[in-house]
Amino acid sequence: MAIIGLGLLLFALLIGNMQNFLQALGRRRLEMSLRRRDVEQWMSHRRLPEGLRRRVREAERYSWAATRGVNEEILFENLPEDLQRDIRRHLFKFVKKVRIFALMDDPILDAICERIRQKTYIKESRVFSPGCLIDKIVFIVRGKMESIGEDKIRVPLSVGDVCGEELLTWCLEHSTVNRDGKQIRIPGQRLLSNRMVRCLTNVEAFSLRAADLQEVTSLFSRFLRNPRVQGAIRYESPYWRSLAATRIQVAWRYLKRRQSSHLSG
């Protein structure tokens, strides 16, 4: 009788857990269907062409699959600050794989992680285009991108890679430090991209906006101006490598012209 009673109790618990699971699954499907209905109504109201509608639907599907329909920002707001910090360090541990950030102290990394936001891109999306403003740094978590420079050289980007990292150096170089040690922005200047970065697959990433990066650099400008950090930024960056190669080519051509002019003279 005891064994039968225990078996019935375990069976009842199993049924209860299955019922809760099915109810949660039903709620999630209902939320997803309501979200899709709202998106369709919005696209119809704005009279988007079919090509744009198809891209919006694909982006919505991938974003829902990547986040499971959970708004992480709202979830984080209800947690204690120390727990938020530990969770962010776990989520953004890939940041230290980049040599630039491996040299940084924990307070700077914590300040950066607090401002990083989740971002999803669909296949063929352009993250940066030539001549357009660079307004963010993008850390790739899942998927593949490629960077195409002015010389048409293609640089593959995958999990753990970064694009738009030249924004960090630019923020430091186009600012001054007053007597109080605080950084002051020089107005009227913008960083424009000299390459195209596009997605080869659907990409899940984290982005750091220019305004947030400027705030971080103003708080930790003295450390970020360290020659080791600056060297790491330029060594790891496809942007700075491409710029260095271009300048070397220009200097080499100038030297060859001078040598030829001396020989002819």
From TrEMBL:
In the UniProt record, the signal sequence range is 1-24
Q: Which GO terms describe its biological process?
A: monoatomic ion transmembrane transport
**What Gene Ontology molecular function terms does this protein carry?**
calmodulin binding; cAMP binding; cGMP binding
Keywords for this entry? Calmodulin-binding, cGMP, cGMP-binding, Ion channel, Ion transport, Ligand-gated ion channel, Nucleotide-binding, Signal, Transport
A GO cellular component entry from the record: membrane
Q: CDD domains of this UniProt entry?
A: CAP_ED (cd00038)
Domain (Cyclic nucleotide-binding) spans 100-168
Q: What is this protein called?
A: Cyclic nucleotide-binding domain-containing protein
What species is given as this protein's source?
Rubroshorea leprosula
